[in-house]
Amino acid sequence: MRTTLTIDDDLARGLERLQREESLTFKATVNHVLRLGLRAVDEQTASDGTEDFETAVWHSGRCLIGSVTDVAEALAIGEGDGFR
């Protein structure tokens, strides 16, 4: 594929440096860097933060108050009978 790109100055300098270090053509250098970048994007998208996570189980025992649906009772037990 043939196309025209406008490359930022800092990126062009980096590509030219890599081109000299690797003794590649500019075209080969750009293709190499694009492949690396696309591979990194694909790997990041694949992981996508949906890795399995396991929460440790902790058994707290039985409920110490009669019913948690009766808020007044739960507060009376938690705060003492003076709350009522």
3D structure, described in words:
The protein is rod-shaped. The mean pLDDT is 85. The protein contains three helices and no strands. The N and C termini lie far apart (80 Å). The protein has a domain at 9-47. The protein has helices at residues 9-22, 26-47, 71-79. With 84 residues, it is mainly α.
How much helical structure, as a percent, in the residues?
40-55%
- DSSP summary, beta strand count: 0
Low-confidence stretches: none
**Describe the biggest sheet?**
none
H/E element order? HHH
Helix/strand/pairing class, anyone? mainly alpha
What is the overall number of helices? 3
In angstroms, what is the radius of gyration?
31 Å
Q: Cα distance, first to last residue?
A: 80 Å
**Overall geometric form:** rod-shaped
Task: Report the average pLDDT across residues.
Answer: 85
- Binned strand content: under 5%
